[in-house]
């Protein structure tokens, strides 16, 4: 067992008394890409929000780098090295690319470092640095969102539906970047509705259905289980 | 030519002050999504505080300026964010707006309380006697300073928002607050900074503008409100366009004033008819800008969970409510002295004006700040047509006010939220500054004198041959009128029309897909509500007997809205509460014993309670009183007993066993204790208080599994009722 950077223990969460995540346990180790797969409404995004402190759990613990962080605010977690790229485009559309990157300096890195790291991974962003982010193409916007993950060198990276609305080729390119980030020792938790994209990049994965994790294993072990999960076999 | 140049240059200095005020407003709006209606009030408070330090205590000007602009104002702004604005998450735009309106009322009330408005407070300009000549125009230094400061503010804000990380974070929060905190930006700190800066800018504008008129609470507040037109030209978003707007506004205002005589001779309209128009010019600009400029979608942060709900009254409950009102009025009319009844008469008219807000603001979510002006229209009609007590005049009051309401609604059809509120505010200010104070005029041989030279005498109605001049008969008649309007409002709520209003408020897009025509619904609700307000005005006017335009001013209308919101804008009971609070001497008498200068305390109190709305956006009647009294619907006998107890108290009072004060306190005590006692006797649980942030009660199993593993327990059923805001049906 390697060292776990992100651990969820018996996490339960819901909206207005209606529980949607019914006790989830997960361990993501250093340098690992962990994929959580499941159909619409399985509670994946809620789980992500709980891990990033955007939504309070009703029970259970969130542990980042061995420390229990229940009750922390999202900005405290962000400065402590946890980075969530939320569903949709995780960017500020009315700020320029450069100003978007500037927002990444709250975690401690200098602006020069942030820019250098971001442009090294996504050179296209450098050409567009003074452009308003809202006018970038979908893929470029997602690159900008990922650039935050590259630039702030977090310990834990949470990616929610990275592939949403993007061309398959672009998705492949983005996932290459994800694997490269993991190689630097970052623990990555990926949530995706479309399984194939993740299984290629993940080293470990779990299937989530109806607010519960029903199976954990390597991508190869899970492939057979997937159709059952999506078609309601569980 | 020289004259024109002089007006343009002096207009530019006015523009500078407007620009400073408007940028503060735009800054807080863009960064926090809250349109701070109280901006004018805050600037006014700052001007008074500066006067106190500089001229009251004779402190040196630099010390007073630094203290007000860089210490007190930013602190006040940060405090506002901390105690008020932060709690507004998950509330509608209406609530957000109403909270800032409440703050405005509170500042006006507090300033009037602290600084007696009847004392003159001369405030000198900076370097009063020095002038500088620019392009042949002699400019006082004070105006030059205003121009320089406006330029400094423009440059400083530009630098802050693009060159400083805090400024970039402010803009980032506009786009996505959650994402900003995922980046590590401390949201609260960012919001506090923008409130602090916005408040300081309001303070600067207040101090600069104060010497141009005598230091006086209301005019000063309204003068800063003029700057809202500039902010609207900037579409509440663009700072450069806000400056352009300020220049248009400032220069056109000064040109109009300067050329007033010539305009009168060109148009052959006597200048006395136009003076009110000139004074209201910035408001006219505001109105035009709202109507003509394409509007952005309002940028408010999506509420993940709306904390507001609308209760549907039942007919038996309404019947009981109406019966108690009329019965209570008859009983009261026999125990209260004539003087008290005379002043209590006003409560019914005010109550009806309050009821007019329920379909419009409560059900459909259109904020109207001109209901009192529409009531004023009703009064004018009543004065002219009901001179001999003709009851048909009441119908005419409703019809004419309804038509005026329709006309006001017509151009505002595409406006909503803040824009609609501002346009109705502009209408209200236009009415009380210009139309209601117009002198007598002649048109096509007919003579018009709307407000009878500034004082309307309204004669009481004659009904079935009886004149309702007796204090008792009018009191009962007005209560019946109030009760009838309550039934109309309940009818609206229970009809499909009422459902349509609520559906349109919740999701205009969904309604469009269901083939509803939002325009017709909207026009009709404006017209109905205006008609009710006009009718209410006619009754209110009869109670006051003599009405001046000042009693219909914009701020008085705000107090009515505010007390309605505190009670609960969707509940007819709130109208009764409002009528009693603002229209009866009872509250004033009680508080007058505690605090002598109560009239201001009343405004401050209304403001302060309104500010607390973020905590309970539904008002106290639907969230506290109704759930408490719901138990009587199950125990009819207990209800009968309470009613009998009231009658018993009344009989004792009639027999002079005790005086009116004891009677009033006993009635209040009975009202408060009856549901508690009944709950203790029947051992029914007390309704849970709806506190935001309080733990939501949990079901024993997830809701989708409820009933699968066994029968639904009573506890779960109660919890579900509570989660869905239903009256308790379990047990």
Task: Write a concise keyword list for the protein shown above.
heterodimer, A: 234 residues, alpha/beta, Rossmann fold, 2 domains, 6-stranded mixed β-sheet, 4-stranded antiparallel β-sheet, 9 helices, 10 strands, B: 3 domains, two-stranded antiparallel sheet
List the helices and strands and how they pair.
The complex is a heterodimer of chains A (234) and B (731).
Chain A: E1 4-15, E2 18-29, E3 33-37, H1 44-51, E4 59-64, E5 67-68, H2 74-79, E6 82-85, H3 97-102, H4 111-121, H5 123-127, H6 138-151, E7 156-160, H7 168-183, E8 187-192, H8 195-201, E9 204-209, E10 212-217, H9 219-231
Parallel strand pairs in A: 3-8, 3-9, 6-7, 7-8
Antiparallel strand pairs in A: 1-2, 1-4, 4-5, 9-10
Helix pairs in contact in A: 4-6, 6-7
Chain B: H1 2-32, H2 39-56, H3 61-83, H4 93-114, E1 131-134, E2 137-140, H5 141-163, H6 165-175, H7 177-182, H8 187-209, H9 217-225, H10 228-233, H11 239-258, H12 260-267, H13 271-279, H14 281-292, H15 315-335, H16 338-344, H17 346-363, H18 371-385, H19 392-409, H20 417-433, E3 441-443, E4 446-448, E5 456-457, E6 462-463, E7 466-467, H21 471-494, H22 496-506, H23 508-513, H24 518-544, E8 546-547, H25 554-567, H26 572-583, H27 585-594, H28 598-611, H29 620-629, H30 631-634, H31 636-654, H32 660-682, H33 714-723
Antiparallel strand pairs in B: 1-2, 3-4, 5-8, 6-7
Helix pairs in contact in B: 1-5, 1-8, 1-11, 2-3, 2-4, 2-8, 2-9, 3-8, 4-25, 4-28, 5-6, 6-8, 8-9, 12-13, 14-20, 15-21, 15-31, 17-21, 17-24, 17-26, 18-19, 18-20, 18-24, 19-24, 21-22, 21-24, 22-24, 25-26, 25-28, 26-27, 31-32
């Amino acid at each position: 067992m390697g060292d776990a950077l992100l651990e969820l223990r018996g996490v339960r969460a819901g909206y207005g008394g209606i529980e949607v995540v019914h006790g989830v346990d997960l361990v993501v180790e250093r340098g690992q890409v962990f994929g959580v797969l499941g159909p619409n409404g399985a509670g994946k995004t809620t789980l992500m929000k709980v891990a990033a402190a955007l939504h309070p759990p009703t029970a259970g613990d969130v542990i980042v780098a061995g420390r229990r962080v229940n009750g922390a605010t999202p900005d405290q977690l962000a400065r402590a090295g946890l980075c969530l790229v939320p569903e949709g485009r995780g960017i500020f559309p009315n700020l320029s690319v450069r100003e978007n990157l500037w927002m990444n300096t709250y975690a401690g890195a200098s602006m020069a470092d942030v820019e250098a790291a971001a442009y090294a991974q996504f050179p296209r962003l450098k050409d567009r640095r003074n452009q308003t982010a809202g006018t970038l193409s979908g893929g470029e916007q997602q690159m900008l969102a990922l650039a935050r993950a590259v630039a702030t060198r977090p310990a834990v990276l949470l990616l929610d539906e990275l592939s949403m609305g993007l061309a398959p080729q672009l998705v492949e390119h983005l996932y290459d970047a994800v694997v490269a980030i993991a190689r630097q020792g970052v623990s990555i938790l990926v949530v995706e509705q479309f399984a194939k994209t993740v299984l290629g990049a993940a080293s470990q994965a779990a299937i989530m259905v109806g607010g519960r994790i029903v199976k954990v294993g390597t991508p190869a072990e899970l492939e057979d289980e997937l159709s059952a999960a999506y078609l309601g076999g569980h | 030519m020289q004259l024109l140049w002089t007006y343009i240059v002096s207009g530019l200095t006015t523009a500078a002050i407007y620009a400073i005020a408007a940028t503060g407003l735009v800054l807080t709006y863009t960064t926090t999504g809250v349109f701070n209606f109280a901006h004018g009030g805050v600037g006014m408070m700052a001007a008074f505080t500066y006067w106190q330090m500089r001229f009251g205590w004779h402190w040196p000007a630099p010390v007073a300026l630094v203290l007000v602009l860089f210490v007190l104002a930013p602190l006040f702004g940060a405090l506002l964010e901390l105690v008020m604005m932060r709690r507004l998450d998950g509330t509608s735009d209406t609530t957000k707006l109403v909270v800032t309106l409440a703050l405005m009322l509170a500042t006006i009330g507090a300033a009037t309380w602290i600084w007696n408005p009847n004392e003159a407070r001369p405030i000198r300009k900076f370097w009063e006697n020095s002038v500088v000549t620019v392009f042949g125009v002699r400019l006082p230094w004070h105006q030059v300073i205003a121009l320089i400061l406006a330029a400094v503010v423009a440059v400083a804000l530009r630098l802050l928002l693009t060159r400083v990380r805090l400024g970039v974070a402010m803009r980032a929060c506009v786009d996505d607050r959650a994402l900003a905190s995922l980046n590590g930006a401390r949201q609260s700190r960012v919001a506090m900074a923008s409130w602090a800066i916005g408040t300081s800018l309001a303070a600067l504008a207040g101090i600069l503008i104060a010497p141009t008129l005598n230091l006086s609470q209301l005019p000063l507040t309204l003068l800063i409100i003029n700057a809202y037109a500039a902010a609207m030209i900037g579409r509440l978003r663009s700072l450069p366009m806000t400056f352009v707007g300020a220049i248009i506004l400032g220069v056109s205002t000064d040109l109009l004033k300067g050329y007033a005589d010539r305009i009168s001779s060109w148009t052959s309209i006597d200048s006395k008819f136009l003076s009110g128009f000139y004074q209201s010019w910035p408001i006219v600009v505001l109105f035009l800008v709202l109507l003509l400029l394409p509007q952005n979608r309002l940028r408010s942060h999506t509420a993940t969970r709306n904390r507001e709900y609308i209760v549907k009254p039942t007919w038996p409950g309404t019947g009981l409510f109406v019966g108690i009102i009329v019965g209570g009025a008859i009983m009261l009319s026999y125990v209260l002295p004539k003087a008290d009844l005379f002043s209590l008469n006003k409560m019914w008219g005010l109550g009806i004006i309050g009821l007019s807000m329920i379909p419009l603001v409560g059900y459909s979510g259109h904020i109207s700040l001109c209901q009192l002006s529409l009531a004023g229209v009703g009064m004018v009609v009543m004065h002219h047509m009901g001179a001999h007590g003709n009851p048909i005049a009441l119908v005419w009051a409703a019809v004419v006010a309804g038509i005026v309401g329709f006309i006001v609604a017509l151009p505002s059809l595409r406006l909503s939220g803040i824009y609609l509120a501002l346009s109705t505010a502009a209408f209200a200010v236009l009415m009380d500054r210009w139309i209601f104070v117009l002198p007598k005029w002649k048109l096509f041989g007919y003579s018009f004198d709307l407000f009878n030279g500034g004082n309307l005498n309204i004669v009481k109605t004659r009904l079935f041959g009886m004149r309702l001049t007796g204090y008792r008969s009018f009191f009962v008649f007005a209560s019946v009128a109030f009760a009838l309007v309550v039934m109309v409002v309940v009818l609206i709520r229970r009809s499909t029309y009422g459902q349509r209003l609520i559906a349109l408020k919740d999701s205009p897009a969904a309604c469009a897909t269901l083939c509803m025509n939002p325009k017709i619904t909207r026009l009709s609700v404006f017209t109905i509500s205006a008609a009710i307000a006009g009718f209410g005005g006619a009754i209110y006017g009869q109670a006051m007997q003599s009405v001046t335009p000042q009693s219909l001013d914009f701020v008085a209308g705000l107090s009515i809205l505010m007390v309605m919101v505190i009670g609960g804008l969707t509940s007819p009971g709130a109208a009764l509460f409002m009528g009693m609070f603002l229209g009866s001497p009872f509250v004033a008498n009680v508080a007058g014993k505690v605090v002598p200068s109560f009239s201001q305390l009343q405004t401050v109190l209304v403001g302060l309670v309104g500010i607390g709305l973020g905590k309970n956006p539904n008002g106290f009647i639907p969230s506290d009183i109704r759930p408490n009294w719901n138990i009587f619907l199950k125990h009819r006998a207990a209800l009968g007993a309470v009613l009998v107890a009231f009658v018993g108290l009344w009989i004792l009072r009639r027999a002079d066993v005790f005086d009116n004060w004891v009677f009033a306190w006993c009635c209040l005590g009975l009202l408060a204790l009856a549901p508690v006692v009944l709950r203790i006797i029947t051992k029914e649980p007390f309704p849970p208080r709806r506190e935001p942030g309080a733990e939501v009660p949990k079901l024993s199993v997830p809701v989708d599994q409820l009933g699968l593993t066994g029968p639904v327990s009573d506890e779960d059923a109660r919890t579900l009722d509570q989660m869905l805001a239903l009256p308790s049906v379990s047990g």
